[in-house]
Amino acid sequence: MTFAPATWGEVDPAAFTRIAVVSPHFDDAAMGAGHLLASYPDTTVITVLAGRPPAYPEVPSEWDALGGFKPGDDVVAARRLEDLAAMNVLKSDHRWLEFPDHQYLAPADRPTPGDVAPVLAASLDELNPTAVFIPMGLGNPDHVLSHDAALLVREEQMNRVWFCYEDHGYKHVPGLLAWRVAKLLRSKPWPTPAIVPIEPDEDLKRRAIFCYTSQIAPLENEHALTARLESHVPEQFWRLDAPPEGWEGMADFI
After folding, report:
1. Is 3:161 a contact under the CB 8 Å cutoff?
2. Residue 52 — left, alpha, or beta (φ > 0 → left; ψ -120 to 50 → alpha)?
3. Cα separations in angstroms, 247 against 96, 185, 219, 244, 252
4. DSSP the chain
5. Which domains does the chain carry?
6. pLDDT of residue 161
7. pLDDT band at 4; cut points 50, 70, 90
């Protein structure tokens, strides 16, 4: 499918025919792009770190313990059930990739962008979305991994329209979002705030997020979840595209 050229943030509506949202963890797409998912009829969330680890730690991590998990619990099984409930609220399909969360693996055993990219590419080939929304990749190693892997896939799948969404919570860490925007500008899939029509439904988005029962307490503890939801922080999407002709050198001044 070919799309009309973008003009100062406008996007050809045909780009939103089929949407895939790449989510590092089960809850990230609902938090960063929940309104988007609920606004369009053909959406799928691809969760990258949705796999079971070779073994859970004997003592649950602080994050898992805050979520109510105890030694011996199958955390991923519980979170998959939560994800199914949230996707039902958002009326979105799902795909789960079998990579474990970084918290369960030693640094040397964690997947790399090169490991993830072919698997993510295969999912996108199967779904054949017209638009792909990926996380900005802020603050958390799994978010950075998902972002970097998706950029590798983008290089091979330029027939789709690519966007970034802002990682909920992490986008408020001082300087992180600006750092990522500058990094993208220098590498030349230029990020431009896009006009993405959505129909915000704050109650529906909240219901979807609160399906992730085991995540609520740690999100309140580390990301001020309720305060963010009550402030109705908007969802912002950035189109990734080549620089306008003649503007390429602007990245050299960063």
Report:
1. yes
2. beta
3. 39, 11, 41, 5, 10
4. ---PPPBTTB--GGGGSSEEEEESSTTHHHHHHHHHHHHSSSEEEEESB-BPPSS--SS--HHHHHTT--TT--HHHHHHHHHHHHHHHHT-EEEE-BPBPGGGS-GGGS--HHHHHHHHHHHHHHH--SEEEEE---SSHHHHHHHHHHHHHHHH-TTSEEEEEPPTTGGGSTTHHHHHHHHHHHHSSEEEE--------HHHHHHHHTT-HHHHHHHHHHH-HHHHHHTTPPP-EEEEEPPPTT-GGGGGG-
5. 20-244 (3.40.50.10320)
6. 97
7. low
> Is-contact 162 132, C-beta < 8 A?
yes
- Are 131 and 165 contacting, i.e. CB atoms less than 8 angstroms apart? no
- In this structure, what token pair is assigned to residue 223? 């990301």
Of 40, 33, 46, the C-alpha closest to 18 is 40
> Angle 75-90/202-209 helices, nearest 10 degrees?
160
Task: Indicate whether this model's pTM tops 0.90.
Answer: yes
The string of pLDDT tens digits covering residues 20-71 is: 999 999 999 999 999 999 999 999 999 999 999 999 999 999 999 999 999 9
pLDDT in tens, 112-148: 999 999 999 999 999 999 999 999 999 999 999 999 9
- Average of per-residue pLDDT values in the chain: 93
Going from the C-alpha of 40 to that of each of 35, 46, 253, the distances in angstroms are: 9, 16, 39
CB atoms within 10 A of CB 106: 7
> Are the C-beta atoms of 145 and 151 separated by less than 8 Å?
no
